[in-house]
Amino acid sequence: PDFTVEVLPQIDSSNSELMRRIRAGQCEPTLLVAEQQTAGRGRLGRDWHSQVGDSLTFSLALPLAPADWSGLSLAVGVSVVDSLHADLQLKWPNDVWLQGRKLAGILIETASTGDQRVAVVGIGINIAPRAGDGLSTAPAWLQEVLPDVDAGQALLRIAAPLVQALKAFEIGGFAPFQAQFDQRDLLRDRAVNLSNGTVGMARGVDAQGGLLLQTPNGLQTVTSAEVSVRPA
Ligand code: BTN
């Protein structure tokens, strides 16, 4: 393919490793698979935990020069769900959900060297639980919908379309992905709470990927927040 593939048995975080390399001047397109992460990171400063052998954790570094970066995380989410399974949904901005539980998370960061900006797209997918995975919060597993797809096959399905999606985003921004996001939108027309206390009805996303929220004070556009669905 048009990127280097590297598999590391253990690393703190595949995103952190690529960010370090980019800052050190290495910005070739690279797909880095971590068999084990000792300090996996999630969005909003959270941790991402996975057990060896039960998940796929990797990051893709790709130099990108879009006119507008907004909506990139949603476009990546659309690409990932499209390459995996018809039953998957996206919880804004880009959590991948299956039947009411989280299946995968996406962490996008950017780093620069010189005048080049490189996107680092990190993806963690629960593939299949191992015996003894004692999980208090039960996530979803890809095995539930794709029993024959292991971590390696999931990576093969996701990687090439993801590169194409990033290139499409570079040219056209989020707009070409908006309709597909709408079809996968888990929050649409549901009552939601934002981490900052705002409550409202989710009404889809705008052309920049912002969450449209109908609140008592009118329609608001949310660009960054933790959103939870309010129990009915
Ligand atoms: C989230 O749900 O908040 C995002 C989770 C992203 C996890 C992946 S696993 C591979 C890559 N390396 C990391 O440290 N995080 C991402």
From TrEMBL:
It catalyses: biotin + L-lysyl-[protein] + ATP = N(6)-biotinyl-L-lysyl-[protein] + AMP + diphosphate + H(+). Its EC number is 6.3.4.15. The keyword Nuclease does not apply. Gene3D superfamilies: 2.30.30.100, Bira Bifunctional Protein, Domain 2. InterPro entries: aa-tRNA-synth_II/BPL/LPL, Biotin_CoA_COase_ligase, BPL_C, BPL_LPL_catalytic, Transcriptional_repressor_C. Keywords: ATP-binding, Biotin, Ligase, Nucleotide-binding. It comes from the Bacteria. Residues 1-170 form the BPL/LPL catalytic domain. The keyword DNA-binding does not apply. It is an enzyme of class 6 (ligase). GO terms for molecular function: biotin--[biotin carboxyl-carrier protein] ligase activity. This is biotin--[biotin carboxyl-carrier protein] ligase.
